[in-house]
Amino acid sequence: MAYNGGPMTEAMYYVLLALMRPNHGYQLMHSIAEVSNGRVNMGPGTLYGVLSRMQKDGLISLTEEDKRRKTYEITSEGETALRLEHNRLKAVIEDSRILEDGDENG
Predict the structure, then answer these.
(1) Which stretches make up the Transcription regulator PadR N-terminal domain (predicted)?
(2) Under 8 Å between Cβ of 47 and 29
(3) Angle at the Cα of 40 (from 36 to 44), degrees rounded to 5?
(4) CA 26 – CA 77 distance, rounded (Å)
């Protein structure tokens, strides 16, 4: 099943951002907190569920596996999906400019 290109969950978005550099699960949790400026703290259950789904969707791939850890990286399809979602979010913010304009008139 491939990713359908619709809006991403926040968890998916931050996992892809954090995987711009290959990473393993435990370190990935810290990287997600870092790229989100501490706003997103993902536990192991949520993280591994998202990783499994994203791997099935072809957005990430398993690059290395040993007894203790699995290392993941973003795929080209994942990077394309991340950039599309980034552009969508920028458009959402742009569409919300009326809120700022309203504050100025206010």
Answers:
(1) 20-83
(2) yes
(3) 125
(4) 24
Contacts of 95 (CB under 8 A, 6+ apart): none
Domains of the chain in sequence order = 10-105 (1.10.10.10)
Burial (CB count <10 Å: 0-12, 13-18, 19+), residue 36: middle
Splitting the chain (106 residues) into consecutive groups of 10 residues, what average pLDDT does each group show? 76 96 93 94 94 96 89 96 95 90 61
Report pTM: 0.85
What does the buried/exposed string (b/e) look like for 47-64 if buried means 16 or more CB atoms within 10 Å of the residue's CB? beebbebbbebebbbeee
